[in-house]
Amino acid sequence: MEFTKLRLTGFKSFVDPTELNIARGLTGVVGPNGCGKSNLLEALRWVMGENRPTAMRGAGMEDVIFAGASSRPARNYAEVTLTIDNTERRAPAAFNTADQIEVIRRITRDAGSVFKTNGREARARDVQMLFADASTGSHSPALVRQGQISELINARPKARRRILEEAAGISGLYQRRHEAELK
Length: 183
Ligand code: ATP
Ligand code: MG
Prior knowledge:
6-stranded antiparallel β-sheet, binds magnesium ion, alpha+beta, 6 strands, globular, 5 helices, binds adenosine-5'-triphosphate
């Protein structure tokens, strides 16, 4: 599964619709302090189902919505769309007929957030599982947050094992087993 496009509207500092084409290979984001580099990475995490406000550097989930600036009023919603290439059929079986997958997450003030995959409403869980199997989830070690390297160095063995499992792409398996055991 390759990410090909990220689109943001009203997400943190990206108040106007912003579209980024993601080329194959390594992508670097450069720019002056405060220009929104970390916000971009958070948008990627968020659309993949991240539900911890702290991972988005906020107190509540609605903090991802553009909060306004001296010259612009606040927004009522934030939306992020991630386009994924599925021509190699790496996504779960439900997407077997789709060459392309579009995941949309939208949060509206006082109404919470909704997900859509290829136009159909989806549960947060489905979206998280879609990425968990491809080891690209919102907790993926492929996304390295500022300060995370030092956290990793100081991590306890159990926490470090979780990171390795995620990297190996087997954490989705554990989550499904856990869900099966609860049933
Ligand atoms: P650095 O190089 O210092 O790490 P950065 O490029 O990673 O900077 P970000 O942390 O992504 O920058 O962006 C910070 C900017 O985003 C700040 O100006 C902050 O005010 C703005 N911002 C964050 N959340 C919101 C929000 N909800 N509404 C409006 N602006 C926001
Ligand atoms: Mg930053």
